Amino acid sequence: MPFPNDFMWGGAIAANQSEGGFCSGGALDSVADHFVAGDLKTPRYFTHTIDENKYYPSHIGIDFFHHYKEDIAMFAQMGFKTLRLSISWSRIFPHGDDESPNEEGIQYYLSVFKELKKYNIEPLVTISHYDIPYHLAEKYGGWKSRKLINFYVKYCDVLFHAYKDYVRYWLTFNEINVLSNGYGDIMAAGILPQEDTAMFMPSATLSERFQALHHQFLASAKAVRLAHEVNSENKVGCMIASTVVYPFSCHPKDIVAAQEKMNLSNFLCGDVQCRGYYPDYVKTYFRKNDIEIKTEKEDEKILKEGTVDFYSFSYYMSSCISTQQDAKSSAGNMSEGVSNPYLETSDWGWQIDPDGLYYYLNEVYNRYQIPVMIVENGLGAIDQIVDGQIHDSYRIDYLRKHIYAMDKAIDNGVDLMGYTPWGCIDLVSLSTGEMKKRYGFIYVDRNNDGTGSLKRIKKDSFNWYKKVIETNGEDLD
Ligand code: BG6
To answer: Which of 47, 94, 185, 277 could disulfide-pair with 28, CB 3.0 to 4.6 Å?
Structure first.
């Protein structure tokens, strides 16, 4: 049985989708707090001012802010070895550029980490998960500005010192490649549009976007060095939204298109963060698209000295690319492509593909030869409560197939550190802002419109995952 004894089984959540506690405990608003709810057909909107008559799901989330003890106790019951969670930057530095940090915010996360320690659950902390202090976006133009590097590093410095005895595993930026994919101008770079607009709409030029990404690369590299200086046991990873792209046909043009898409959407960020320099294919892409970014003399050295210790990624689905005009399109997790006739889709149209996970694990491990971790995976689905119970066999089925794929990859030599399925407790969907798109082992009584008691209920998948962890992946039935 391939899963190593120290395999990090667990789950993943993020502050902006679960925490709530909006503007309390000394915190201020982040860009994420300016997105109203949408659904599959209605895009989420960004609004410059918070409009009392609109519904912003992040303001309450699932109120993890007040429920964390109860939730962590339930994670412990499942036997979690690790919990991936993110820190909200504006809880620590409310404006982002403050002189000193907000002590109340520091204490809040300390209490969370102490609670995790009580159950021997190792925190895996995302430092920035689509959660930029609003003030930094408004005043500096978000990550377009080089100034953000120092603000970010100062924030990291506070975290690394304050949580030195509690946290060893860190991720610098969630899905950093959402910028090279072109979906993250507002939410990941904090580049605000002129007018209120749909969340995924571009608000930057290509040069501005890649400039912002360059600044994040530098900030990440500096954070890696700092983490190692503060505690040599710290391990820092990158976090990439995996973009598995298959050529739709064996037409050589489709093969080349798939390669180009994988390079730009996906490998560019991994290459910079794992190898410490920009790959040549990006230089060509920049040249062909008139992209110019400003760099400084020390940048090469910073990138070189700040390579990550492990490669982490989210994986939900795969897509295809075609150079033929008549191919039917499909979309999901901030990527667009052509639909694959061999795959089924979720209720939100995301193509379910466990073999793609196996393929991707081999691909990235062979490319970087450093430990790999899957820090997001799962099925967003509608759950029904029947006599107080939730029979989510569809979720178990999805996860089981993906764990088999992991098993096979480990057997093939991939050094896989752990697995933290996304939304281990139901939380707000990032792309739609809905609650009914649920991923959890734990149901949260909260509806799309913000009604509901916030009561937690175990789903069938809760006991199933408990058994998976107990048997170290041996019993998947
Ligand atoms: C990833 C993000 O892209 O996908 C998460 O890191 C997000 O924040 C997850 O929640 C699932 O996407 P969605 O839109 O179903 O919530």
So the answer is: 94
- CB distance 177 to ligand 1 below 6 Å: no
Q: Is residue 195 flagged as an active site residue?
A: no
For the structural domain made of 8-470, what CATH number should be given?
A: 3.20.20.80
Protein residue with its CA nearest to atom 16 in ligand 1: 429
Q: What is the percent of the chain with per-residue pLDDT over 70, rounded to a whole number?
A: 97
Say which residue the tokens 């802010």 belong to: 65
Segment 193-216, tens digit of pLDDT:
999 999 999 999 999 999 999 999
Structural contact between residues 219 and 150, judged by C-beta atoms closer than 8 angstroms:
no
pTM: 0.97
- Amino acid identity of 369? Q
422 within ligand 1 shell (Cβ under 6 A):
yes
Residue 99 annotated in active site: no
Distance CA 439, CA 350 (A): 13
* DSSP for 203-267, written as a single string: -S-HHHHHHHHHHHHHHHHHHHHHHHHH-TT-EEEEEEE--EEEESSS-HHHHHHHHHHHIIIII
- The average pLDDT across 388-400 equals 98
Q: How far is the CA of 446 from the centre of ligand 1 (A)?
A: 18
- Which residue is catalytic, options 122, 175, 208, 434? 175
Quickly state the pLDDT bin for 334 (edges 50, 70, 90). low
